[in-house]
Amino acid sequence: MLLHIYKDYNTLASMAANEIIGVIKSKPNAVLCLATGETPLLTYEMIAIQAIDENVDFSRCTFIGLDEWVNIPPDNEGSCHFFLEKNIFKPLHILNSQIHLFDALEKNLEAECRKMDKTIRENGGIDLMLVGVGMNGHIGFNEPGVPDNLYSHVIALDTITQSVGQKYFRQSTKLQSGITLGLQHFMECRKVIMMASGIKKSLVMRKTLEDKVSTEMPASMIRKHDNGVVMLDEEAAALLKKD
Ligand code: PGA
Predict the structure, then answer these.
(1) Which of 81, 12, 90, 79 is nearest to 51 (CA)?
(2) How far apart are CA 177 and CA 110, in angstroms?
(3) Which residues of the chain have pLDDT under 50?
(4) What is the pLDDT of residue 107?
(5) Catalytic residue among 19, 68, 112, 136
(6) Is 38 a pocket residue for ligand 1 (Cβ < 6 Å)?
(7) Of residues 112, 143, 158, 233, which has the active-site annotation?
(8) How far apart are CA 119 and CA 121, in angstroms?
(9) Predicted pLDDT at 27
(10) What is the pLDDT of residue 194?
(11) In angstroms, what is the span from residue 197 Cα to ligand 1's centroid?
(12) What is the dihedral of CA 186, 188, 191, 194, to 10 degrees?
């Protein structure tokens, strides 16, 4: 695992954008799984600008959804679907045929999970996963204590996720469960970039990087990944040991 610490959020975002563009340049038909959330927002803005400046072609990429709030429709601006559409798919002119997201309104969510697993397998696995880290150490909706051998699954959301998640919604919204790729996908993907920014993430990043590796802190699993890159700004790294 590599750890990079950048002076501020802008620098972090531009370095993460470079990493992602680098993957597309070396593998134009890459399978990408890009997280939603506040953390990668500027990275995606920078990718959209860089894609035009450097003529980067995303037309052969495949996009896999990381997670979704169960029962939240795609036209709700707090949904992961809405976020990806607005911040990645529209700006990069990605076609529907390139996109595979969870349908969180589907009655049979178990079947939806198996469908996603099959899609990932049929596309040859995930090349790059970009994840943020939740205030409770979750990645996607892999909440503390989740088994590490799961592929896609439906999960009851931790109370921290339920309350922190309100920030994405205009009005108070009931967030009880999520549908998500599993830690098994995370461990199997060819490259993981984990990003965190701001002082509010400093404690969780210390636990992620310095406490024992445990599914109680799902983000800590990156330390077992063969090709994991952790990218932080100085604030998120503030509580790490200096060495
Ligand atoms: P955030 O979310 O980027 O909005 O902090 C991170 C997460 O919950 O995975």
Answers:
(1) 90
(2) 13
(3) none
(4) 97
(5) 136
(6) yes
(7) 143
(8) 5
(9) 98
(10) 98
(11) 10
(12) 20
Strands of the chain, DSSP E = 2-6, 31-34, 62-64, 67-69, 99-100, 128-131, 153-156, 177-180, 191-196, 228-233
CB 219 within 8 A of CB 154: no
Q: For strands 128-131 and 191-196, give the pairing.
A: parallel
Q: Around Cβ 149, how many Cβ atoms within 10 Å?
A: 10
pLDDT at 242: 77
215 Cβ inside 6 Å of ligand 1: no
Predicted model pTM: 0.97
Annotated catalytic residue 67: yes
> What CA–CA distance (Å, rounded) separates 49 from 65?
22
Please count the CA atoms within 13 angstroms of the CA of 75 that sit on its side-chain side. 0
The pLDDT tens digits for 198-237 are: 999 999 999 999 999 999 999 999 999 999 999 999 999 9
Does ligand 1 come within 6 angstroms of the Cβ of 218? Answer: no
Q: Is the CB of 39 under 6 A from ligand 1?
A: yes
Ligand 1 centre from 95 Cα, in Å?
A: 26
Q: What DSSP assignment string belongs to 15-38?
A: HHHHHHHHHHHH-TT-EEEE--SS
Residue 54 CB–ligand 1 contact under 6 Å = no
Whether 198 contacts 233, CB under 8 Å? yes
pLDDT at 232: 98
